[in-house]
Amino acid sequence: MQSRTKHLLCSPGPIAWWAFATRMVLLCGAWIIGPHAIRSLLPYGYELGQVARSIALGQGFSSPLRTVHTGPTIWFTPIYPYFVAGIFKIFGIFTDTSHFVIQTFNCAFAALTVIPIYKISRKTFSEGVAVTAAWVWVFLPTALFFPITWIWDTSLTALFFALLFWLTLEMRGAQSISAWAGYGALWGIGVMINPSVLSVFPFLLAWLLWEARKEAAPWGKFAVSTLLVFTVAMVPWTIRNYRVFGKFIVLRSNFGLELWLGNNPNVPQTWSPWMHPNDDPQEGEKYKRMGELAYMAEKQKEAFAFMRTHPKDTANFIFRRFIDNWLAVTDSPVDTWSSAPLYLKAFMAENILFALATMLGGLFAYHERRPNALPFVIVLLIFPLVFYLTHTSLRYRFPMDPMMIVLAVHGVAYPISHFRRRFGRQTDAVTPAASIPTP
């Protein structure tokens, strides 16, 4: 009985089931209590939903805007839009049933993230950290919120990013060419889900190759096999883009727009969402008139021009986005705290403690000379950089939250275990003296 209870509470599979059940209870409760509000959430009909709708209607990978038909697009990489389109084909376009099915899959993706979190923690730290980190993920507010709210690739990207990170740790010391080729293939799939994960791929691969070089392994062959398979994985989407647009565009086209939304004269703090072509009819019509590539190129040109001519404003925006990425606030935390309602204070406190524990965990891992510490540092430093330049959201940061959870738990567990060891030594030193009989 005791071993069965331990299995249910300390094994990644059962914990993942607990995570899925928790999310489904919340999801069903949200539909029962406020079905109209849940159905009418705008993320269901924004760019990704619109592209999936076009695919399901037989119009191809096209028209990301809600108000105008704009033709073929490269706004996204293909995997998740086609996944949503498949659900639309089976259960109907923008129906309640499709909405619920997509949310259920997102809950499953979030729950399955427990497994790589557990494996990463055990590989890097200990069994205790692994179990604790897995359970923290079960109840982490953002890991509960995004799967049941956003019809987006957010939860799937977090799952796959965590899997890729775990695989990176497991690849350290691998000698099989086929394993390195498979590593490149899985990175190719991850990038086709969400290109944001590509930012850390060169650095994590470089770390692996450096470790292989230190062991006198044929790191050159490993590099060639990984990069060759990864490149091949990019070819079908690149060919499609060239055939449709007449240009070599490997991944997606919308960087210029995202950069402009965060760097223009109308930005108040971090970005200007009301100027998005999905929300501004004039911008939507301009997008349609110019075509996607020309529109994105113009926005990128305008953004860089603003950044060159307003360096002080640009630096201020980047600083605010840095704070927003880690603390989820754009104003001064002190000012926000003084005027915030209780629930917002709790949310702010959770984010501040989460970020602080993550940083402490990274410092402790470095202090202990953990061999797998550097990949965590790479993710924390590199992954958010593009969002500091464009605009930030907890949804954008979410894919690296699984790695943050691992560090955060270690950041709390390390000082506790340190003090326990110290206290235990003091007790051991006192006990023999106390056992000496008094004369």
Structure characterization notes:
With 439 residues, the protein is mostly helical. Among the domains are: 172-249; 254-414, no CATH class. It has helices at 2-10, 12-33, 35-39, 47-56, 79-91, 96-112, 114-124, 127-139, 141-149, 154-171, 177-193, 201-214, 219-245, 255-262, 281-290, 292-309, 311-327, 333-339, 342-367, 373-382, 385-389, 394-397, 401-434. Helix 1 (2-10) packs across helix 2, helix 10 runs antiparallel to helix 11 (177-193) and helix 14 packs parallel to helix 16. The longest helix is centred in the last third of the chain and has 34 residues, at 401-434. The termini are far apart. 39% of the residues are buried.
Q: Sheet with the most strands?
A: none
**Strand percent estimate:** under 5%
Beta strands, count: 0
Query: Which residues form runs of ≥5 with pLDDT under 50?
Result: 430-439
Radius of gyration: 24 Å
Number of helices: 23
Structural class: mainly alpha
Distance between the termini: 50 Å
Q: What best-fitting shape do the alpha-carbon axes yield?
A: globular
Order of helices and strands: HHHHHHHHHHHHHHHHHHHHHHH
Overall mean pLDDT stands at: 90
Give the proportion of residues in helices: over 70%
